[in-house]
Amino acid sequence: MNHFEYKNGELFCEDVSVGTIAKEVGTPFYLYSRATLVRHFQAFDSGFDTIDHITCFAVKSCSNIAVLSLFSGLGGGADIVSGGELYRALQAGIDPKRIIYSGVGKTEEELRYGLESGILLFNVESEQELHRLNKVAADMAVKAPIAFRVNPDVDPKTHAYISTGLAKNKFGIPINEALDLYVQAAAMESIEVQGVSCHIGSQLTLISPFVEALRKVKAFVEKLAEKGITIDYIDLGGGVGITYDDETPPHPKEYAKAIREELSGLQATLIFEPGRVIVGNAGILVTEVQYTKTNRGGEKEKNFVVVDAGMNDLTRPSLYGAFHAVAPVEKKNAAMEVVDIVGPICETGDFLAKDRTFPHVDQGDLLAVMSAGAYGFTMASNYNSRPRVAEVMVSGDQFAVIRRRETMESLIQGESVPDFSGEE
Ligand code: LLP
């Protein structure tokens, strides 16, 4: 459930009409509902109320500090994958003891920053990373708390680009090779082994792959115990998928129930790294129709609706062929047409929706691209020298710009024309 609803034919976010915001802020913009963010965070988190756990929001899915600080206030932590995300999480006031650091390519500088900040856990993804971390920690005369991210070789049955738990993916350490590494790490001077971590993929619509992975992790934790290595944290990675179109993902409560049942008897604090399930349906992208046109001459006529948001603003349709529902901000009684909703970027791959049956739109109409809260703004770029759009948050009958629209000046910020001596 979310708080984007029509009232008298007009799309509202909570108690504010989307059209009113567009008038004040201009288009395009991302719009988040605070009440939906809170509701979704709590729906996930409360499923684990009866057990020790930390919900570390996956910053990569939506990294605005207003969103991060909201979750921090609800008791959440952060799952980060870069120094930049660590900076954001700290700026948002997230307790470092609720921050975990994932990712296959952490640099020496990033490891140092994590150690300096006193984060809870590094999810180490290779033997070389272990050695680098041990060295950096030794130089700083501290101990680095770690989990290894194990790869359980489970098929998450999701898009190939976002499935991560198969043996052929670049992530983690094969679970059947990890034992030796744990023994090695446990003997290291500047490493403190604390956890096991596992993330098999994103936008999962089935519970069974999570359960299969968890069983493998559980068996692995028992093997570790036999070697005298005790585990304080088990990190189960990202959350469940969401409904973009007609998917029927499990409700977070069902997911929680399955995990709780599977984990009975294990004495460890659980860590979760959900992103999409919390923010995905709490945000939309609002865009304005610039032109409509019909291209004839091909096999069949094609209707195009050209809007002011493109693949640089929301890349999911172009990159993954992802479906996002599109809705008119103001409903009107118009004839239905089949249209492609496309952006202004000079690429055929620049589309937000293809072959959609949609009521006829006119220049100046506003459209809402739904379910855009996760991996929307965070994946935006300046391609075609387009300033990144504004981000707005609504709470009740109020709204606030939480990231102002970039300007022309910000496009060339940091650039300079060199003056090479000796050249004409
Ligand atoms: N933890 C780790 C280690 C991850 O790699 C991810 C997502 C998450 C947690 C959060 O997963 P979630 O709860 O959001 O499913 N850009 C793609 C999604 C990439 C996901 C990357 N990792 C998209 O737009 O669909």
Description:
This protein is an alpha/beta fold and 424 residues long. The protein has two domains: 4-31 and 281-411, Lyase, Ornithine Decarboxylase, Chain A, domain 1, CATH 2.40.37.10; 34-278, TIM Barrel (Alpha-Beta Barrel), CATH 3.20.20. Helix content is 27%, strand content 26%. The chain has twelve helices and 21 strands. The protein has helices spanning 18-25, 34-45, 65-73, 83-91, 108-117, 127-139, 178-186, 208-226, 252-263, 276-279, 316-320, 408-411; strands spanning 4-7, 10-13, 16-17, 29-33, 53-58, 77-80, 99-101, 121-124, 144-151, 173-174, 191-197, 233-235, 269-272, 283-295, 302-307, 326-328, 336-342, 351-359, 366-369, 390-395, 398-403. The strands form three sheets. Strands 4, 14, 15, 16, 17, 18, 19, 20 and 21 form a nine-stranded mixed beta sheet that branches. Strands 5-6-7-8-9-11-12-13 form an eight-stranded parallel beta barrel, surrounded by four helices. Strands 1-2-3 form a three-stranded antiparallel beta sheet. Helix 9 links the parallel strand 12 and strand 13. The chain binds ligand LLP. Ligand LLP binds next to helix 10 and helix 11. Ligand LLP is lined by residues 58, 61, 79, 102, 162, 199, 202-203, 237-239, 273-277, 316, 320, 374-375.
By CATH reckoning, the class of the largest domain would read: Alpha Beta
Strand content: 25-35%
Q: Would you tell me the overall average pLDDT? A: 95
Q: Could you name the CATH homologous superfamily of the largest domain? A: Alanine racemase
Looking at the structure, what is the overall shape?
globular
Give the cofactors and ligands.
ligand LLP
Low-confidence stretches: none
Computed over alpha carbons, the radius of gyration is 23 Å
Structural class, from helix and strand content? Answer: alpha/beta
Biggest β-sheet: count, sense, barrel? 9 strands, mixed
The total number of structural domains is 2
SS element count, helices: 12
Distance between the termini: 64 Å
Number of strands: 21
Look up the CATH topology of the largest domain.
Answer: TIM Barrel
Fraction in helix: 25-40%
